[in-house]
Amino acid sequence: MRMGDRSTLMHGTAVALNSAGLLITGQVGAGKSSLALELMALGASLVADDQVVLTRKPEGLLMSAPTTLEGKIEARGIGILRCDATLAWLRIVVDMDHAETRRLPELLEIAISGERVRLIRRVETPAFASMLYVLLKGGLE
User: Where are the alpha helices (DSSP H) in the chain?
Assistant: First the structure.
């Protein structure tokens, strides 16, 4: 959904490690907020839950929360949790709707608002959040 000439509103959840951001996409109930909470428990910061504003800048896509959702994340079965929120540059997109089955998959990209971004499919392992955290820190060979 276009919000203006430079911003787009996307359904998803975003977290950040320093200024590097990870956008989690998927259908309702796919586990976006749960994965974000796991990443936050490891040290990531919330950018936005449920809706993410992507603003095109010369440096890339800056992610933020809509004002009404800033600092809030849904914890299914508990309620809405409050936390600090930050801004982040989109670096990785995680697709929760499709599972990666290959041990060493090829590198995938997705185009979002005219930018090419690394795409990761959901991996069925309890270590998925930890793997993403290390990746976000710059840990891919």
Answer: 32-42, 128-136
Tens of pLDDT, residues 7-55:
899 999 999 999 999 999 999 888 999 999 999 999 999 999 999 999 9
What size, in residues, is the chain? 141
Whole-model pTM: value is 0.90
Pull the structure tokens for residue 83: 């936390």
The conformation of residue 107, written as its DSSP 8-state character, comes to P
- 68-72-74 Cα angle (round to 5): 120
Pairing mode, if any, of strands 45-48 and 51-57? unpaired
Alpha-carbon Rg of the chain, whole angstroms? 14
- Residue 83 is given by DSSP the state -
Question: What is the homologous superfamily of the domain 7-135 according to CATH?
Answer: P-loop containing nucleotide triphosphate hydrolases (3.40.50.300)
